[in-house]
Design goal:
The complex is a heterotrimer of chains A (about 525), B (about 325) and C (about 325). Chain A has 18 helices and 19 strands. With about 525 residues, chain A is of the alpha+beta class. Chain A has 2 domains: about 250 residues, Periplasmic binding protein-like II (D-Maltodextrin-Binding Protein, domain 2, 3-Layer(aba) Sandwich), CATH 3.40.190; about 230 residues, Dipeptide-binding Protein, domain 3, CATH 3.10.105.10. In chain A, strand 14, helix 14 and strand 15 form a beta-alpha-beta unit. In chain A, helix 17 packs antiparallel against helix 18. Chain A is globular and about 70 Å long. The chains are: A alpha+beta (about 525), B mainly alpha (about 325), C mainly alpha (about 325).
């Protein structure tokens, strides 16, 4: 640990004396595989970034350690009529700058989230209008009844209007921005328990406890240092050598090593992310296949054959080292609307798969190319390879095209016209509600309505398409649950996708600290305790 | 002389333009930068608008020309990923890479030269054969494997050295250095060795063959005939004559060492330009990648130009033939 | 041939009746009596290196017969066989002498098939670089002037980019320019091209130097005066002279090409993981070093190191043997 505390040169001798942490100083250092790209809370809609910002900035309502939705900056947040929500801010909340939190700050933040550089436009657009009542009270007006509005606003962090205006960062970080990019991109001023003291993008970010934080939290950390480490081996080595207190993700195969090593432990749990396979069911001829003139995936028997050919238990045992949770549904148990009794995968049955393929007119199988990311999900590429080998056993020759996530997404997403025949994808509904899986993944693709944006294979069932908006606005929980269940049933019968498993959260933690592992793979410093 | 300099300069400019074209053309066609800028929920209209703002919809020629003009002004644009000026990022990262590269080169020189001298003097000696074998093993193992092995041994098992990063750095104006702190020096050891290994082998072999050549010359034979001691002949005469080409070639190699640091930096999580480049490749961060390529080319062109001019100054009869014994994998 | 014979006749010599067969015999005899063969016999390390290289090349060539099973045939792989340690260890399985990888492929078989890809990419890259380099070197040296300057400037630009960087570049360009459907089939050619293109400079410089020397000799100028295509004469005189250095460069380049391929795999630009090369295998195995499944990375790593070492030793020996000054 000495290297961390060692102070600046010039006075090396003095530095050695200073190396011992002063009484009460509790330091915590951790690493993640990706970079913290921006400090701008409206900059990037991505789980890690949003999660990190959650230590600096706060929303009206937020997650507690179990991911229950609890009041944060809003003392209360209630629906007064179909399209109106009344919010009352907590009194006495201060920003790091010392300014008080007021209604104007929230209105400013909402408007900022709608500016050109913002990546938070989708949640911000759920709000049609905000009516200020007084300094701490306001009404939010929506254009449609929206029972899950509070969840939509979980990631809409509140910035300080005065600070933003003073530093000319009234708009979200713009790509063509000013001299140093945009002030909020490199500096932060929120209401959260930690403030940024140093931010070298891509190298390290140092946080300091904010003394004026509005509530008591479990954490006793006074200084926290974040380092991005992209290589798995280096990350694990840094934890094993005691340089870091916590790293994530840890490759599942290294759990045993962490268990055996003194002073560190793996910390695992189910992530709310479902990994699944999808097929191109729209084109009349597959882009990457030797079947010409027709699309085998339009035939439900072929899709079912694939489902029976994949041995999810073997993937669990060998690829995921018993750490995954095989699934039959497109959403995880933590997601609102999950149906436990439907969560069984198709039976592994190669004979049945062969028969189904033969019945569909492919007794000798066919060949195709599969698109796969290799740095996005836990062992993603290895899952694809294993699936390819399993499909080879029923005669389908699959070539795996595994690429980095940016190349992969650049190929298969909407802006490249869904350029794929067969792919692996993972999904966590941002709102932790099934609707956020149904609308983007299972509803027919319609550009104008914005549905099915991530339905890469274009699976389409009219009934599901009709149900999606109904589920969004239905306020009767029983009716809503029934509709979700109906969607799941249709989707399962038609093998719209093949859900494989929920991947595990995989962290490595030093015995020096206790941390809370949130199901969405976010580290909340509020719950980090250094011994 | 003047005409020669002008011609050389023009050629250098042409080289830089070509590199800029290659860099630009390559990265204009890899991946879709838009995808990396926005989250998965962003709508098509927003994506389209962003394309427009970034000028990604303009014709390729227009985009290239804009790039050249801006680059000449030192403006490499903004990183798509970090939303900061690439220039600032390069300046931030450059000290880390330069320190690592220069220390590695020095390390390679100070170990490689004596080993080369020794192996040339004791061509058939046992130790010389061992050195030659070690040097061969050094170039027969991929750099990344050596790095990982070092981490495993010295970082994890023995826990002597830090496994990643640069340690504590000190800011001297705009330059950050890790050479003034204990942690910085400790962090430098493994990456520097990993990066130096290949150069060390190269230098050792170069010194050996140059020494063997020189030792055969009449000049040395006369020196011996004059009754000078072996020591005086070997070091005073032979080595002195060898060092000029060795140092020239080592200098020329600096550019390639800086670039070759990509692998070392990514294994050791060294916060230098190479890692920035690799991250940029993965993120399709076009401005960063293009700037890095141009910078590497600039390094090379400048070093090459200096060497050419020096040679020319020293001996105008010399046929100026540019580079050294060439790049390595 | 006709031109050559005519040229010889013109110079007053008789056209010798040398059939291909006789010439081959002659060559072999000369080789046996040559200094090279002598120095080969005298160097036990070189003999071992040659033997090792031969064994690896032969087993790679005849992989289908040598390997216990074909790991590239996905239908024969069972995921449940994954991560089995080498046969002599506690949980070993005699079917898999060196254990299995994370997908259930036998390490031994995968190494043999992987070596085929590594060597294939290596050889192809070298041949490619050799043809381009010798060609451009001849043109550069013979034509001179602007052409020479342009080619040598390109060589300079080229040298400012190490092979790795260049390969990343070329790979990116190829992926951008080639139609998507062909990526997979062309991936390996792209790899060969990107590794090969980084190596031509040294061949070109060597050949250019020799050409410059030959060009100004009197007989070449004489040939030019009487209107003979002097390039043919140069070819006849330059190529034999540079064959030695070119062979040395080629051997060392082969070792470099194999390593470059492995490093590219480490950086994620290698061949498809379903048909792995040695480099891809090491890269995969690296993920399992901490978890104790050392055999996945270690055996391919050892084979790669031994192969490259052997080739380098051969290159070393060849250089010393061909350099008359060192004899």
């Amino acid at each position: 640990m000495q290297w961390k505390a060692t102070a600046i040169a010039g006075a090396l001798a003095a530095a050695t004396l200073m190396a011992a942490p002063t009484a009460g100083a509790k330091e915590f250092s951790w690493a993640f595989q990706g970079n913290l790209q921006s400090l701008d809370p409206h900059g990037l809609f991505e789980t890690f970034t949003i999660g990190f910002h959650g230590n600096l900035y706060e929303p009206l309502i937020g997650y507690d350690d179990k991911m229950n939705v609890v009041p944060m900056l809003a003392e209360s947040f209630t629906q007064t009529d179909a399209n109106t929500w009344r919010a009352k801010l907590r009194a006495g909340v201060k920003f790091h700058s010392g300014n008080d939190l007021t209604t104007d700050d929230f209105i400013f933040s909402w408007k900022r989230a709608l500016t050109e550089g913002s990546d938070m436009k989708v949640p911000a657009r759920k709000i049609k209008e905000i009516k200020k009542i007084d300094d701490l009270t306001f009404d939010i007006i929506t254009s449609n009844p929206n029972p899950i509005l509070p969840r939509s606003l979980l990631i809409l962090y509140v910035m300080d209007k005065e600070w933003s205006v003073a530093h000319k960062t009234e708009a979200a970080t713009n790509l063509k921005g000013g001299e140093e990019g945009n002030f909020a991109n490199l500096n932060a001023n929120g209401t959260g328990p930690f403030m940024v003291t140093e931010h070298a993008a891509g190298v390290k970010t140092v946080l300091k406890r904010f003394d004026g934080y509005w509530r008591n939290i479990a954490s006793n950390v006074t200084k926290a240092t974040f380092t991005p480490i992209s290589q798995d081996a280096t990350r694990v080595a840094a934890l094993l050598s005691g340089e870091l207190d916590m790293v994530y993700p840890v490759p599942v195969q290294d759990w045993q090593r962490l268990t055996d090593a003194p002073g560190v432990q793996p910390l695992a749990g189910p992530e709310a992310r479902t990994i699944f396979l999808g097929f191109d069911q729209v084109r009349d001829e597959l882009l990457y296949s030797d079947v010409k003139g027709k699309n085998p995936f339009k035939d439900v028997r072929v899709r079912e054959a694939f489902a029976h050919a994949i041995n999810v238990e073997a993937i669990k045992k060998k690829v995921m080292r018993d750490a995954s949770f095989p699934t039959g549904l497109m959403v995880a148990p933590q997601i609102g609307g999950f149906v436990p009794e439907m969560n069984t995968h198709w039976a592994y049955d190669t004979d049945k798969a062969k028969k189904l393929l033969a019945a569909a007119g492919y007794p000798n199988g066919f060949s195709l190319t599969m698109d796969c990311p290799n740095d996005r999900y836990v062992n993603d590429e290895k899952i694809c390879q294993a699936a390819a080998a399993m499909l080879a056993r029923v005669g389908v020759k699959v070539k795996v095209l595994a690429q980095t996530k940016s190349k992969y997404f650049g190929k298969v997403l909407s802006q490249n016209n869904y350029d794929t025949s067969f792919y692996l994808l993972g999904w966590t509904p941002g709102t932790m509600d099934a609707h956020q899986a149904i609308e983007p993944l299972m509803a027919c693709r319609t550009k104008e309505k914005g549905r099915g944006l991530f339905n890469l294979g274009g699976y389409c069932n009219e009934r599901i398409y009709a149900l999606a908006p109904m589920i969004e606005s239905e306020t009767d929980q029983a009716k809503r649950a029934a509709m979700i269940r109906e969607v799941f049933k249709i989707h399962q019968d038609e093998v719209g996708h093949i859900p494989l498993h929920q991947q595990p959260l995989s962290w490595g933690v030093s015995d020096r600290v206790t941390v809370n592992q949130r199901p969405d793979n976010v580290l909340d410093l509020r719950y980090v305790v250094v011994k | 002389m003047f005409a020669f300099i002008i011609r050389r300069l023009l050629q250098s400019v042409l080289v830089m333009l070509t590199v800029a074209l290659i860099a630009f053309a390559l990265f204009r066609f890899v991946g879709d930068p838009i995808n990396n800028l926005v989250g998965q929920d962003t709508t098509l209209q927003d994506r389209q608008k962003l394309r427009e703002t970034l000028g990604l919809n303009d014709s390729v020629v227009v985009q290239y020309w804009r790039y050249v003009v801006n680059t000449a002004k030192g403006d490499f644009g903004y990183s798509y990923m970090h939303r900061r000026p690439v220039k600032t990022m390069l300046l931030e990262r450059m000290p880390a890479t330069l320190e690592l590269s220069i220390i590695s080169i020095l390390l390679a020189l100070f170990i490689g030269v004596p080993m080369g001298v020794y192996t040339s003097l004791r061509r058939d000696g046992f130790l010389a054969k061992i050195f030659m074998s070690i040097s061969l093993i050094g170039i027969s193992l991929p750099t990344f494997l050596i790095g990982i092995m070092l981490i495993l041994l010295f970082g994890v098992i023995l826990r002597w050295l830090p496994t990643f990063g640069r340690g504590e750095v000190v800011a001297l104006g705009t330059w950050t250095t890790g050479l003034l702190t204990v942690s910085g020096l400790k962090a430098l050891i493994m990456p520097a060795i990993t990066l130096a290994l290949f150069q060390m082998t190269l230098i050792m072999r170069l010194v050996r063959s140059e020494m063997l050549e020189v030792l055969r010359t009449d000049y040395i034979k006369f020196a011996r005939a004059r009754g000078l001691s072996n020591r005086a002949v070997n070091f005073g005469h032979a080595l002195k004559n060898t060092l000029v080409p060795v140092i020239t070639i080592t200098g020329l190699q600096l550019g390639s060492v800086i670039a070759f640091a990509i692998i070392t930096e990514s294994v050791f999580q060294w916060p230098g330009m190479g890692r920035m480049f690799i991250e940029a490749v993965a993120d399709v961060d076009i401005p960063v990648m293009a700037a890095y390529l141009c910078l590497i080319a600039l390094f090379f062109v400048v070093i090459n130009l200096i060497v050419d001019l020096l040679y020319y100054a020293v001996d105008p009869r010399l046929r100026v033939d540019g580079g050294g014994s060439g790049g390595h994998g | 041939m006709a031109v050559e014979a005519a040229a010889m006749a013109e110079r007053g010599g008789e056209v010798p009746d040398l059939s291909l067969w006789r010439r081959t015999i002659d060559l072999l005899q000369r080789a046996r009596d040559s200094d090279i063969w002598y120095s080969f016999k005298r160097s036990p390390i070189t003999i071992v290196a040659a033997a090792v290289t031969a064994v690896i090349i032969l087993s790679a060539l005849f992989a289908s017969w040598v390997a216990p099973h074909n790991p590239f045939d996905l239908a024969t792989i069972d995921l449940m066989n994954a991560s089995i340690p080498p046969a002599w260890m506690a949980d070993g399985d005699t079917r898999f002498l060196l254990g299995t990888d994370d997908q259930g492929r036998g390490i031994l078989s995968t190494i043999i098939f992987g070596a085929r890809i590594s060597l294939g990419v290596g050889f192809a890259s070298v041949v490619f670089a050799l043809i381009v380099g010798v060609g451009l070197g001849l043109i550069s040296g013979y034509v001179g002037g602007t052409v020479d300057a342009v080619i040598m400037r390109i060589a300079d630009i080229q040298l400012s980019f190490p092979a790795i960087l260049l390969a990343l570049l070329v790979d990116g360009v190829a992926r951008g320019l080639l139609p998507r459907e062909t990526h997979d089939e062309l991936a390996i050619y792209v790899l060969v091209f990107s590794i090969g293109i980084s190596g031509w400079v040294q061949y070109a410089r060597t050949v250019r130097g020799s050409t410059l020397v030959e060009k100004n000799k009197e007989y070449v100028q004489a040939a030019r005066v009487i209107g003979r295509p002097a390039i043919l004469i140069i070819l006849r005189h330059v190529l034999p002279n540079v064959m030695g250095p070119v062979m040395v460069i080629a051997t060392i380049h082969l070792a470099l090409a194999i390593i470059t391929e492995a490093t590219l795999s480490f950086l994620g630009v290698g061949v498809s993981p379903t048909e792995p090369s040695l480099g891809t295998l090491i890269n995969v195995g690296q993920d399992y070093l901490f978890s104790g499944e050392w055999w996945i990375a270690l055996f391919p790593g050892a084979v790669l190191a031994i192969l490259v070492l052997a080739v380098n030793l051969l290159g070393d020996w060849l250089r010393d043997a061909l350099n008359p000054k060192l004899r």
